[in-house]
Design the sequence.
């Protein structure tokens, strides 16, 4: 993970105060104040392209995930509760594993 630092700059056509930046593989994460939300947000880039934002307008226990198109990073194309999305991903992964006959350890299961 990268060290913390503060930077104020234009991001996606608006002023964004960066409080913390980090990287993981091809993802980068920026926590800061985008001026459009009352609380801090976390912007997520994939291969240096803005793809998602976590917002906490309804409280930290009710984080929302907003997905953005690279063609129009100023408008969210989807917005839903983060916990619901994570559960759907986990359920889909488990079902795919079950139907494919692959164990979580990568071994094929005889069918």
Sequence:
């Amino acid at each position: 993970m990268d060290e913390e630092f503060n930077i104020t700059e234009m991001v996606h056509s608006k002023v964004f105060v960066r409080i913390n930046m980090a990287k993981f593989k091809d993802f980068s994460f920026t926590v800061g104040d985008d001026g459009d939300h009352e609380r801090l947000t976390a912007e997520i880039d994939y291969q240096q392209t803005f793809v998602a934002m976590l917002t906490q307008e309804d409280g930290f226990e009710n984080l929302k995930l907003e997905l953005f198109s690279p063609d129009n990073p100023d408008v969210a194309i989807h917005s839903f509760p983060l916990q619901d999305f994570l559960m759907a991903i986990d359920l889909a992964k488990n079902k795919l594993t079950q139907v494919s006959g692959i164990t979580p350890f990568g071994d094929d299961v005889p069918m």
